[in-house]
Amino acid sequence: MDVVQTERASEIAKRVEEFVRTVVVPYERDPRCGSHGPSEELVRELRSKARAAGVLTPHILPGGDHLTQLETATVLKRSGLSPLGPVAVNTAAPDEGNMLLIGKIGTAAQKKRFLAPLIAGDARSAFFMTEPAADGGAGSDPSMLQTTARRDGDHWVIDGTKAFITGAEGASVGIVMARSNTGEDGDEKVSATMFLVDLPHPSIRLERILDTIDSSMPGGHAVVRIEGLRVLDDQVLGAAHEGFKYAQIRLSPARLSHCMRWHGATTRAHEIATQYACTRRAFGKLLIDHEGVGFMLAENAIDLQQAELMIDWCAAVLDGGSLGTSESSMAKVAVADALFRVADRCVQVMGGTGVSRDTVVEQVFREIRAFRIYDGPTEVHKWSIAKKIKRDTLSGLHGA
Length: 400
What we know:
Layout: H1 7-24, E1 33-34, E2 37-38, H2 40-53, H3 69-79, H4 85-89, H5 95-105, H6 108-119, E3 125-128, E4 148-152, E5 155-166, E6 173-179, E7 192-198, E8 204-210, E9 221-232, E10 236-237, H7 243-277, E11 281-282, E12 285-286, H8 291-319, H9 325-350, H10 352-355, H11 361-371, H12 378-399
Parallel strand pairs: 3-6
Antiparallel strand pairs: 1-2, 4-5, 5-9, 6-7, 7-10, 8-9, 11-12
Helix pairs in contact: 1-2, 1-3, 3-7, 3-8, 5-6, 5-7, 7-8, 7-9, 7-11, 8-9, 9-11, 9-12
């Protein structure tokens, strides 16, 4: 599954893969896996087993050092071999991205209070950024933030509504992103600030859990109302008014992490579809010997290989410190669309069995379909890439 890997990453990935395949996969039929994700009881049980196996939070080493992004790709692809795998070994969204962000810009006190429980697998987190479309709130365009944070003495007071907040139900740690110039100072430029909060909190009310196409993330995706939430300066994550910059620090690697995890899931779906095609007979021969089916599996192998090359290349560039938003967008578009094609073909190869829940293929298809929207729809990323093409082209013309 890997183009490049270090001995350290290879050893960790091997243990993670063995754990996911032998311990986690049997839980995929557990009744505690609901439409809004695995229950808290199941999460605790899986993480207890991961801790005992020495594979909990495998991308963060003892002492707090992270694997490189390229090494992380090796490990996260293995954790994704089951939709429950990232939850079990603590590499799932949004926790993985939140751990990265707090680790990069949090203070020592914030890391002790908010980060340590996440790394230990004793807590889950939520990232409160997106808002209801009906209210004109922020989605793919974070500059549309409606949630406000205003100064009141030595406190900040936060008010607003958030939507599609993954894992809010049951989370212990929250990162709330709010517009911190409210127009009171005459500044029309939108700026944002991030705040760390303990959850649950009486000023943060879950209005409902959305019924969505995916079902792998604990707590599902919530609509949340924030009313009169008061936080002190020591809960500001990073510097005030720098939230948009920090969002990019988090989101670019997080998009890539999604690609890593879902590459593992579609690899597993492809394995199941291939086994089915190599054992199921129709019209006097195995399905794989029918050109239409065999070609679909060949196309899967090509898409998986190309997606892996894109993931590993972007991870290496990110390790070098030069991954831009355009490259991150390219990876999100190329990998999400390729993996969706793989999942779709797996369903098609397996026919009626593919759309049933007798195997995990049906769930992988649903999860990958959602991935093409989460962390920015394909079309938004293409628009971002097109803008860069325009800038680079006009700059070249003017400089000629």
